[in-house]
Design goal:
Layout: H1 5-10, H2 12-15, H3 21-30, E1 32-36, H4 42-52, E2 56-60, H5 85-96, E3 101-105, H6 114-118, E4 123-126, H7 131-143, E5 147-154, E6 157-164, H8 174-177, H9 188-191, H10 195-214, E7 223-228, E8 233-238
Parallel strand pairs: 1-2, 1-4, 2-3, 4-5
Antiparallel strand pairs: 5-6, 6-7, 7-8
Bound molecules: zinc ion (ZN).
Residues 172-173, 175-176, 241-242, 245-247 line the site of zinc ion.
Length: 251
C-alpha cells in the first residue's frame, strides 16, 4: 500500500514524526479498532482515531441521545436528542474522515454477540459504562488474544489500562485489579462525572491504541494510569498478574 497525495496532505503532521513516518501511517490505515460504547469515552476516542487515519473503525452502541449526555459526549448536539447515537456518530465521523471504513453495530454487546462483533478487530477500546460489559470484553480479549484498552471514570477520577494479550505473555487483566466481579457500578448517573475528564481519558485511550499498533514508546501494559483531575495528578502504578486469575490459566 502506498500513500496517496491526499493522504500525505491529511496526515503530514504525523508522517513528519520520526516514530510514525509514512510506514507508520500506512500501518494505521491498515489497522482495525473496535470502540465499544459511543458515550463519554468512546466519542473522543473515535474522533481522534478517525482523524489520525485508523483505516477500519467499528463502533458499537444502541442508545439514543439524551440531554444528560451532552456535557461529555462530543459527537452529539442539542438538536439531536432522541436520535440513535450510532447513526449520528457514524455520519459525523465519516464527515471528519471520508477515507476510512466505519462499521456500525446498533446493539448492546453481550456474550452471544461479542464474537461476531469483535472477531475482526485487533484492538478493542472499552468505552462502556458498566463493569458487567468490561468483564465480558476482558474475558473475550484474553481468550482471543486481543489488545484491550480500558477506562473507567467517576466524579473527577479516572483509571486507564492497556491489556496486551496479543504480544505480551505476562499481561495482567481487569480481574487482576478487581478479582470480585460482583462489584457495584458507580455509574455517572448516580455519582456524576466531570465532562472534560471523559475527553482526557478517551483521548489517552486513542493515543495508547496508536502506540500499540506502531509499537512505539512505553506500553501502559502492566500498569494502571490513575488520573486525579482535581489535584491534577497522573500516577502510573504497577499492576501484576494475579495468581490463578482467568488470565493466568490456559483457556
Ligand atoms: Zn487477570
Amino acid at each position: 500500500m502506498k500513500l496517496t497525495n491526499e493522504q500525505i496532505d491529511l496526515y503530514s503532521r504525523q508522517i513528519t514524526l520520526k516514530k510514525i513516518g509514512p510506514v507508520g501511517q500506512e500501518k494505521l490505515l491498515k489497522s482495525k479498532i473496535l470502540v465499544v460504547g459511543m458515550g463519554g469515552l468512546g466519542t473522543p476516542a473515535a474522533v481522534y482515531l478517525a482523524r489520525m487515519g485508523i483505516g477500519n473503525l467499528g463502533i458499537v452502541d444502541n442508545d439514543k441521545i439524551d440531554p444528560s449526555n451532552l456535557h461529555r459526549q462530543i459527537l452529539y448536539n442539542l438538536d439531536e436528542i432522541n436520535k440513535n447515537k450510532i447513526e449520528i456518530a457514524k455520519s459525523k465521523l465519516q464527515k471528519i474522515n471520508p477515507n476510512i471504513n466505519i462499521k456500525t453495530f446498533d446493539l448492546r454487546i453481550d456474550k452471544n454477540n461479542i464474537d461476531k462483533i469483535a472477531k475482526n478487530y485487533e484492538i478493542i477500546i472499552d468505552g462502556s459504562d458498566n463493569f458487567e460489559t468490561k468483564f465480558l470484553i476482558n474475558d473475550y480479549c484474553i481468550k482471543n488474544k486481543k489488545i484491550l484498552i480500558l477506562a473507567a471514570i467517576n466524579k473527577f477520577d479516572g483509571h486507564i489500562f492497556t491489556f496486551n494479550f496479543k504480544n505480551k505473555k505476562n499481561s495482567p487483566c481487569l480481574k487482576c485489579f478487581i478479582p470480585n466481579t460482583q462489584i457495584e457500578d458507580t455509574s455517572c448517573e448516580r455519582e456524576g462525572v466531570v465532562g472534560s475528564l471523559a475527553g482526557i481519558a478517551g483521548s489517552i485511550q486513542a493515543n495508547e491504541a496508536v502506540k500499540e499498533i506502531l509499537m512505539i514508546g512505553e506500553s501502559l501494559c502492566g500498569y494502571i494510569l490513575i488520573i486525579d483531575t482535581l489535584k491534577l495528578k497522573f500516577k502510573k502504578i504497577k499492576l501484576n498478574k494475579l495468581k490463578n486469575c482467568i488470565c493466568d490459566k490456559k483457556i
